[in-house]
Amino acid sequence: MPDDQLTARDCAPAASTVQLDHTAVYATDRHRSAGFLAEILGLEVGVPFGPFVPVDLGNGVTLDYYEKRDEPIQSQHYAFLVPETRFDVMIARLEAAGVTYFADPRHTRPGRVNDLFGGRGAYFTDPDGHNMEILTRTYVRP
Fold first, then answer.
1. Residues 6+ apart with CB under 8 A from 61
2. Residue 81: helix, strand or coil by DSSP?
3. Exposed e or buried b for every residue in 50-65, given b needs 16+ CB within 10 A?
4. Average pLDDT, stretch 108-128?
5. pLDDT tens readout for residues 128-137
6. At residue 111, does pLDDT exceed 60?
7. Residue 53's closest CA among 38, 42, 39?
8. Cα–Cα distance measured from residue 126 to residue 31, given in angstroms and rounded to the nearest whole number
9. What's the angle, vertex CA 103, arms to CA 98 and CA 108, rounded to 5?
């Protein structure tokens, strides 16, 4: 439906604060990469929307996987604050998938998790080289 035919009923409510709504994640195979992350985090891959394959994080933010084949994928960092009760399950999924996880962002401490800020965290690489992070406590910022 063209934008000029949308009614107020068709639109989501306006935000009252600045929030991240979605971001594009470049991938060589959008279905494979979205499926990989969804499996590790225990989420579902959404229905493709135009050129995007979405993974809804459950907090109003969507990662929209976009296929980019004409040039190399530039590695990005994505950090996911996850419940402590689900952290071990995510680590087990990484192990079952044969994916090495690390305690540090430079990937020098394999098979270990960190205990920063009273929580736990780990880093791993997705199929396109993005540096993914799961953490149970957000970083303390000044």
1. 19, 20, 21, 22, 23
2. strand
3. eebbbbbbeeeebbbb
4. 97
5. 999 999 999 9
6. yes
7. 38
8. 13
9. 85
